[in-house]
Amino acid sequence: MPDRTDTWQAAFDLVRTRGHERRDEPFKLASGQLSHDYIDGKWAVNTGDRLATVSRAIVDLAAKSGIEFDAVGGLTMGADPLAIGIALVTGKAWFSVRKEQKQRGHEQWIEGTRLEPGTRVLLVDDVISTGGSTEKALERILPLGVVVTGVIPMVDRGDVAAKRFAARGIPFAALVTYRDLGIDPVRDV
User: Fold this and answer.
1) At what angle do helices 6-14 and 48-64 cross, to 10 degrees?
2) In 3D, which of 17, 56, 88 has the Cα closest to residue 152?
3) Which domain holds residue 74?
4) What span, in angstroms and rounded, lies between the C-alpha atoms of 145 and 141?
């Protein structure tokens, strides 16, 4: 759990007031589970100031968790704003993993920085339910010989993703958890 610093509190307030919406009717999450709590991470960080606030809080959490990195990114679109925001506040490189391989040019899976063997990578996402999307990004970058030093989502909707990455030996720390927001956690199905 992150220290409750002013930076964390400002980031949490953005997630709570701008990103979280309680709905009467349940909707389906990416994991297939139903929830009444919608979290729009991109709306929470939709301006430069808001993105910088959350990005600094994630950088602080990475440092507190001992996660060092040379590049930051993840699966498009959820990771993109955070990867670029963190790159801006740290001077580190950013990348984005496509959902489908580009069909022209270099036919790349990964845009942004060129990931090379030994590059220390931090994977991010705006909202994680079970970690499946982040694991897709992981599977795309591991063949490049990178070293994934950690996974940090802006919001973790349960305890499933932490277990998923722990089983792979990858440190996991969430900026904001379902406990912080007072919402029901996703289940491990």
Assistant:
1) 130
2) 56
3) 6-181
4) 8
CB 118 within 8 A of CB 146: yes
**Domain contains 95:** yes
pLDDT in tens, 154-185: 999 999 999 999 999 999 999 999 999 999 99
| DSSP one-letter code for 143 | G
The pLDDT of residue 8 is 97
Distance CA 123, CA 144 (A): 15
Domain count, the chain: 1
What confidence tens digit (pLDDT) does each residue in 83-120 have?
999 999 999 999 999 988 766 666 689 999 999 999 99
What is the biggest distance separating any 2 CA atoms in the chain, rounded to whole angstroms?
Answer: 48
User: Cβ–Cβ contacts within 10 Å for residue 148, how many?
Assistant: 22
Q: How far apart are CA 130 and CA 143, in angstroms?
A: 23
Amino acid at 130: T
Provide the 10 A C-beta neighbour count for residue 170. 19
Q: Distance between CA 27 and CA 135 in Å, rounded?
A: 23
Q: Is residue 168 part of a domain?
A: yes
Q: Is residue 188 part of a domain?
A: no
Instruction: Let me know if residue 81 belongs to a domain.
Output: yes
CATH code, 145: 3.40.50.2020
What is d(CA 113, CA 71) in angstroms, rounded to the nearest whole number? 8
